[in-house]
Specification:
The protein is mainly α. It has a single domain, classed as Up-down Bundle (3 helical TM bundles of succinate and fumarate reductases).
């Protein structure tokens, strides 16, 4: 017996209408992080032990600043979606909604603080 109607199969939506979109977003952000993380680790490894002016010069480079900003945004959104999946599996009712809001708030606060620090460091 098929649980998907012809319309849902054509639209690519599952029974909950959001699982496919969530899966594709997690897959895309995972692949993006697979590329971003090693590059960022290499850049950060070069700054270890350097003076403040050397670190500032490294992050003043537009390529490094954009790479770091992309890592912050994509990484924190990936975290928020992954945390949401875990919360949906184990929490129910109002607790679930509150925990999802806390996870999203933590992700957005980290993005804001990271981008603010990056701008202050790069300028």
């Amino acid at each position: 017996m098929r649980y998907l109607t012809t319309r849902k199969r054509a639209e690519g939506l599952g029974s909950a209408r959001a699982g496919t979109e969530h899966h594709l977003a997690m897959t895309a952000s995972g692949w993006a992080l697979l590329v971003l993380v090693p590059i960022l680790v290499f850049v950060l490894a070069r700054t270890i032990g350097g003076s403040f002016d050397e670190v500032r010069a490294t992050f003043a480079n537009p390529f490094v600043a954009i790479l770091t900003a992309l890592f912050l945004v994509i990484g924190m959104r990936h975290f928020a979606k992954g945390a949401q999946t875990a919360i949906e599996d184990y929490a129910h009712g109002a607790t679930r909604a509150a925990l999802i809001m806390v996870a999203n708030a933590a992700a957005y606060l980290t993005i804001a603080a990271g981008l603010y620090a990056l701008i202050k460091l790069a300028i």
